[in-house]
Amino acid sequence: MLHADMSLEPLIEPHVLQTGGLLRALHAIQGALGWIPPTAPQSLARAFNLSLAEVRGVISFYHDFKTQTPVATTVRVCQAEACQAVGAAKVTARLAQAMGVALGQRRADGAWALEPVYCLGLCSRGPAAQVDQQLLADLDGPRLEALLARFATEGNR
Amino acid sequence: MKTLYVPLDSVAVALGADELVTALKAEAARSGTEIRIVRNGSRGMHWLEPLVEVEVDGIRHGYGPVQADDVPSVWAAGLLTASPHPLALGPIEDHDFLKRQTRLTFARCGRIDPLSLSDYAAQGGWLGLRKALTLTDAAIRGELQTSGLRGRGGAGFPAAIKWQTVADTASPQKYIVCNADEGDSGTFADRMILEGDPLSLIEGMIIAGLAVGATRGFVYLRSEYPIAKTVFAQALELARAGGWLGDSVAGSGKSFDIELFIGAGAYICGEESSLLNSLEGKRGEVRARPPLPAQQGLFNQPTLVHNVLSLCAVPTILEKGGAFYRDFGVGRSRGTLPFQLAGNVRHGGLVELAFGVTLRELVVDFAGGTRSGLPIRAVQIGGPLGAYLPTRLLDLPMDYEVLAAQDAGVGHGGVVVFDSSVDLATQAAYAFAFCAAESCGKCTPCRIGAVRGVEVMDQVQQGIDHSQNLELLNDLCDVMVSGSLCAMGGMTPVPVRSALRHFPEDFGL
After folding, report:
1. Beta partners for B36?
2. N or C: which end of chain B has fewer CB within 10 A?
């Protein structure tokens, strides 16, 4: 049994009395640490006076909350209809090849992950993707080649 | 000093607007020229992004699409004097794409600095609220009823009925909840207005609060919109500092305030009852209805839940009167809708027009057909739960009732174009796969049905027990339509059935 992690308290405490505080606290933890560490549910359950099951249920419900250690770079490539219409499948396949991982997978050394995302709101200029915080539209031609080259270079290092 | 405009809109940024700003500043420094760069919203002509505008003698001239690399050439040609250049577009508001629109909700988007209270006020901001503050709550609701506004999130429910229900339900605490969980592929109008004219949403929410007796508002924004989050959070601070939010809205003695809440990547939270659970910090599971959110919503209190576009239509309705708004549109579809042209289109972007415009006008006249140059084969309207329509139905007018008669819907105004390379059986299989991934799991028809749908479509596509599997597919759709708790399971059959009905050849028929 994991015990509550005191170091999480400053991240959790400001949200305890807020509306929807559990989600806000989870965002705060993930924002600071890049993931929801295994010690978090116990701390959250105590702070919000919830059962561990309730907290774990919330964490597992939302795609955003990651319970694996963070990777250095995350590429999220849009898989939704508007991007499908302009070749998202091909872009995804090329990214997967350059990154050496399948969609939804991460590199074993934690260097990067390729994840699906369902709409970034860039549907008029797809294919679209997000590399960490950076939004990318029109992801074919030079912009895609530049991104692919980045992984080819980093991968050979 | 010359003023330049470069959008902060996500599309512009995703196409290099930030790099462009850096290049413009560098060029200005090199030539010893002082310039002011305003980060505006997008005009909605996304194929021209990043679009630079320069103001000369009070007229805004456009250049686009301009990449950082183009700056030396555009600058040397005389950007600051609006001189000719291959990327020059002339006076931007005379552009045909803009001139043919009826912009009510998006009137200011792209024109103003989204984070300037003075720009907002100078271009008609707060007039709707000022009018509302002179009216009784019943009179505000009366204007809304006259306008004929229907919910812009997709369901098209008459807004005035919702407002009346919340007003009639007694409670010490009522809420206005804005649904900005714009998860439908092919839609970005909520994002654009949050980034380009966020104060208009704040104004609409305050008016709604006055009309139903609510003092607290929440904006539930999806996490996939980081720029909208930043801009809207700043807009809230500005509005508070300006006295538009707080204990005494514009000195009226009436209180209203808004909090921004960020979702966590669950499509289902765009469904209003899931959204309310999520806003309470819980799993975003659907609630059974009744009770309606208007009677027992957030924390079981009366709650007015509206899409961004519904609330952003409200200031215009109050400022110009319900009758002004009602006089746009056709049949029981009144006012305007910001249509979003997406997918395989040459000229993608946002087009606000009165209801009644045909799909052909949108995808051919405005969007200019496919980007690939191949013929259009299918158009999906209304997001992942919307119908796939063939080209022979392109002359359908955008009207809730006309589309419903074709088992289609306007939805949130998203129009996604596919060229002749699309396979509609694959799209149908995707509809089930998406539902399987995003179902909240509360009800069986959706949770299990979506998975069965993926399996059945797999067999259909492989030609295994073909006729039996098509019959099973039809049965499955019936179960999902009649047995699901919400539109996720209930409408996943819409894209599936429309694909089968209009494109049977893709299903081996």
Report:
1. B3
2. N
